[in-house]
Amino acid sequence: MGEYNMITIRNHVEWIGQASEWFCPKWGIAGKLLQFICEDMKKQGILTLYLVTDHTSFYERYGWEFLCMVQGDGEEELTRMYVHHDKI
Prior knowledge:
With 88 residues, the protein is of the alpha+beta class. It has 2 helices and 3 strands. A hairpin with an 8-residue loop joins β2 (65-70) and β3 (79-85).
């Protein structure tokens, strides 16, 4: 696998649409992206992250813990919520 130059999208909001289209089919680098996001949030002082998804077992492989089932406003179905804790 080649080298990747990762940047934060918050510094380039004009790329959000293009980035989401590009990332969608790239599940092979998902683990690296999760790691990058966790490290970036840690640098910002955010040590606990939450994630809502319908995927099962994927995030556990990358250190996320299943927290509970949640229901969004106006949604009938429950979905999974995960948490990721980091230390300074």
